[in-house]
Each structure stands twice: as C-alpha cells, then as structure tokens.
Amino acid sequence: MTNTVEFAKMNGLGNKILVVDMRGRKDMVTPSAAIALNADPQTAFDQIMAIHDPRAAGTDAYIDILNCDGSKAQACGNGTRCVVQALSSETGKKAFTFQTVAGILNATEHEDGMISVDMGQPQFGWKNIPLSEEFHDTSRIELQIGPIDNPILHSPAVMSIGNPHAVFWVDGDPMEFDLERFGPLLENHPMFPEKANITLAQVISESALRTRTFERGAGLTLACGSAACAAAVSAARTGRTGRTVSIDVASSPVRIPLTIEWREDNHVIMTGPAAWEWAGAVDPVTGTWSRDAAPEKAAL
Q1: Strands (DSSP E) along 68-196, which ranges?
Q2: 96 and 13, same domain (yes or no)
Q3: Nearest 5°: phi and psi at 284?
Q4: Per-residue pLDDT at 295
Q5: Share of the chain above pLDDT 70, in %
Q6: Which ranges of the chain would DSSP assign to H, the alpha helix?
Q7: Tell me: the pLDDT tens digits for 152-195?
C-alpha cells in the first residue's frame, strides 16, 4: 500500500473511534476515505480523529473530526480522550492542548488512566446553536414528535457543546424508546439548519443521569461524550440535578460512568475512559487499509 499513514482503532466508552496520524502532511482525510472505512465492518466507526501538526501557538495538535458519513464534526469528547491516550502512550505527556473547529480543548490523562477533557463553554443563544427560529429560552423549546395531545417526545433543551444538541427528558429508560426511528426525523428537523445530536435523558438521582444518543452524521451510537455534557448542563440548568453528575450511557457496553462537571466558570469538564484496540496503516485519500501483525498496543 502506498501513501499510507498510521492509525489506531480505539473506543471511548464504546464510541467507535479511528485515530489517524496526519502529522507531517498537508492533506486531509477525505470524505470518500471515511465512507469507505465505515463500510468495512472491521473499521466501521462513529468518528475519525485526524491528528495534524499544530496550527496555533501553544497547542499540541490540530484535530480534524469526520463523521462516518464523511461530514465534518466540530467536537467529539469520546474521541478526544482516545487522542489523549494515543499521544500519551507515544510521548509520555499527560496534559495536551488541541485546536479544533470548535475552538481550543485542554485535556489531561490521570494516574488511574481516566481522561478529563475541558469541552469549553455551552452556548445557549438560538443563533449560536443554531436554530432556524428565535427562542429566548432554549432550556425548553417548542418541538415534539408523536400525537399533539400525547407526544412521545417533547420540549427539548437545546444548546451547542461545540456542535448542536437537543436533549429530550424522558420518565422511563431511554433504551425503551424507538430512537432509531425517531432519531433521523429529529436530527434533520427544519429547526436545526446544521442538524443536531438527539439525546434522551432520564434523571436517576440528584447526581446521576442515564442517556442515549442519536448522533448527527453518525446515527445511533454506543456513546456520545458531548451529548452527555449537554444532558448534564441541561439537568443543572433546569434544577434537575446539581452541577456535577455521573452519567450512565445506556447504550454503552462499557459500564463505567462518565463524570461531567459544569464548573462555576461555565466550562464543562468531562472525565471518562478510552480504550486501544489495534493499529494499522491507511490511505487517507481512498480509505484502503491494512492491520499491523503485532497484537500488542503501540503508539502512533
């Protein structure tokens, strides 16, 4: 294979991530390569995190993020944790500063292997999310699915955590709702001109939530870090919980909760695990790939 770069198959709480090392190159992972990689069951993913040389002073890398349909994503918390683990294994560093389309992200790997990512400040203004209609109070907007007199989902909280999110509060287990059917309708609703991540959230206690997410550009995923942040912020904003919660991502096979803290300075800190699976080489133009023979973990 020619024109290849190293990549790692990883996951963040089950969120399927490909970390692609594009350092030293000027080109990008193409949408067609992303689509080809996702079409192969062995490399199917939710997000590609492409690591590029830093573009801004004081940063360690520029991260380009692609969804499995080839579209661009502004943020991916679970994927950022995977990048931190990969670079920490390579360099021995524990603290990183990344530049993304959504802005600057700071992240730290702790001694226990858990990784904290500063996801920045949530944006509540309707133009910043963005929405197609003006709402002064975005903690609860007029949007529902199902019969008018008995909607299945209604009145979501909306915000941007780097990308648009709508959080619907439900009384039952999020896994009991047919999100696979409702998700595409809501993701592509005219209310969201740039589409939106759709999350169902249930309050378990004053300090615990349970979530499930249909991701913009990726579909029904096992986990979504920025959606967990949106649910935590919405819960605190509406008085359902305090400002620090543990989140059980209902669809994740990894039974480790995320910890989300909405700090007084308005920054959202997400802490959770990342897991390396295997490494290989990939052509960033075509998506043609090969897997390394060695099964042990290796740095990028």
Answers
A1: 72-73, 95-100, 103-109, 115-118, 144-145, 153-154, 157-160, 164-169
A2: yes
A3: -70, -10
A4: 58
A5: 97
A6: 31-39, 77-91, 179-187, 225-237
A7: 999 999 999 999 999 999 999 999 999 999 999 999 999 999 99
pLDDT of residue 74: 86
Here the tokens at position 174 are 């999020």
Structural domain boundaries, residue 22? 5-102+275-291
Asked if the structure places residue 68 within a domain, the reply is yes
For 271, residues 6+ apart whose C-beta sits below 8 A from its C-beta are: 110, 114, 115, 116, 117, 258, 259, 260, 261
Helices 225-237 and 77-91, interaxial angle, to 10°? 130
Same domain, 85 and 161: no
Same structural domain, 153 and 228: yes
The two tokens of residue 33 are: 């390569």
Which tokens in the block code for residue 123?
Answer: 């944006």
The count of domains in the chain is 2
Instruction: Kindly write down the DSSP assignment for every residue of 246-281, as one continuous string.
Output: EEEETT-SS---EEEEE-TTS-EEEEE--EEEEEEE
What is the rounded distance in angstroms from the CA atom of residue 286 to the CA atom of residue 1?
11
Cβ-contact 45, 289 below 8 angstroms = no
Summary mean pLDDT of the chain: 94
Q: Do 86 and 10 belong to one domain? A: yes
User: CA 16, CA 189: separation in Å to the nearest integer?
Assistant: 26
* 176 belongs to a structural domain: yes
Residue 84 lies in a domain: yes
Full-model pTM: 0.91
> Residue 162 belongs to a domain with what CATH number?
3.10.310.10
Which pLDDT band, with edges at 50, 70 and 90, does 255 fall under? Answer: confident
Residues 245 and 287 in one domain: no
Residues marked active site are found at 76, 224
